[in-house]
Amino acid sequence: MTRPNAPVTQVALVAVALAGCRASPKLSVAELEDPATCASCHPHHFAEWSGSMHAYASDDPVFVAMNRRGQREAQLGVFCVRCHAPMAVALGLTDGTSFDPATLPARARGVTCYFCHDVAKIVGDHNNGLELALDDTMRGGVSDPIDTTAHRSSFDALMASSSNDSQMCGSCHDVVTPRGVALERSYQEWKSTIFAAHDPGHELPLTCSGCHMKSEPQVSEIAQPSKSRPNSFHEHLWPGIDQALTPFPGTDAQASAIARDLDPALTIVGAASPGASIGGGGICVSPDGGGVLTVRIDTRGTGHMWPTGAAQDRRAWLEVIAYDASDRIVFASGTVADDQDPEDLADPHLYSIWDRAAAADGSPAHMFWDVATVQSKLLRPPVTIDPTDPAFDHSSTARYAVGPIYGQFDHVTARVRIRTLSHALLRQLVASGDLDPSIAARSAKTLDIAGASRHWTKAAADAVTPFSGCVADPFQ
Question: Does the pTM of the predicted model rise above 0.85?
Fold first, then answer.
C-alpha cells in the first residue's frame, strides 16, 4: 500500500474527494482507518498531518533502533509500539518484537487521524491509556456536527481545545517505564501550571491542543466539498522539537513551525526575585561576592517544564562568553563543540538543563529500560498570574563566581542551546548495530532559541548605574 504521506497531486485529491465524500453508503471502518481517505475531504488537515511527527512516529529510525535494542535487552513487547504505531497494536498487526514499519499498511503506521478521532474513552493517564470505539463515527471538537456520506460525526469534549483538560494528549505523552519510573511527564507538569486552572476570565484553561494546535482566526469549512458547519481550522503540525531524520513531506514547514514556537518559549529577561543578593536584569555583572556574573532565564508562557518529554535524552545548556575591550575571551562556559555532549566538557561552571537518568548502580543510563532514578534539572513553568504570590517568579538563575576578572568584562553574550538527543545515546545505538551512523549524525543538530539570546555591554550598564551591571532588560 502506498504510504499516505507520499506526494499526492491536486488532481488525485480532487478525484478521491469526489469518490469519497459523495459516496453512499458510508465508508467502511477499514477505509476510515486509512489517512488517505481523510485527505479526500480534509486536504488541509491531511497535508499538515503528513509532515508531522505524528505521521512519522513509527518511521523514525531512532525509535525503530531503540525498540529493536529494547526487545533484545528488556523484552519490551508492544511497550514502545503502542504509542508510536497504536493502530498496528489495536488491529493486532504487531507484537512489537520484530517491528518493521515498512511491513505495515498505511492505516497502521504512525499516529493516524482515525486513532485520535475514534477514541471512545480514556482509561489511563500514561502509556497510551486510550480505548478506541473502532466504529464509523469520527469524534471532534465541533459542536453540533453534521453526519457526512463518508462517516458519522460526534462532538466530544475530549477533543475540544477549550475544555479537554489535555487528557487525551497526556495519555500518550506521559510515559512510565516497565520499572515504574515516571520518565516523561508533560501532562503531569501541565497539571501543575496556571494553564490548567479553570478561569474563564483569563481564558483558562489553556490546554495542550490550545498551544500545539493553533486555531486560525478566520472561520471556514473544515471539509471539502462543504460537508460541515463552518469552524476555525486547527493546525495539525504539532511542532515540538523533533524533526524527521529521513526524507519526509513538509520538512521545511515543520522546521519553521518549531522555530516559531521554540523561539519565544524562553527568554533571558527581567529583574531577579525580591530580596535576592544579586540585582535585576537578564544578564548582570556585579562586584558582589568578589565578582559574579548572573544570567536569569524565564520560561514565560511555556505550559510545562522545559525541556519536556524525553528530557533525559535532550541536551540543553546555557552558553556564556565574556569579552574584554579588545574582543578577547576572558571567560566562557557552555561552549560545546558539535561532536560533544555538554557533560563531556571539563567545565565546572556549566549550567545544564536536562534530566539526569541513572541505572541501579548509579551509572548514567541512556536506554530508558535501564533507568532506575531521575534527577530533574529542568526550567519551571508559571504556576500563578498573581504578582503578589511568592511563586509568581518561576525563573532560574545561572550564577558564575568569576572573581576579579569581572572588571575586565566589556561585553557578554548568553544563549540557551538545545539538541533533541545526546551523542552518548546515539553512539550506543550505532555501536550495537541498531542505528545507521548517518542517521546519528543528523540527529545531533543544535538549535538556538532567539528569545534566550542576549548581549550585555559595560557601556550600557554604566549609563544607568556605576557598573553594577544589573539593568532592566528592554525585552521585559
Answer: yes
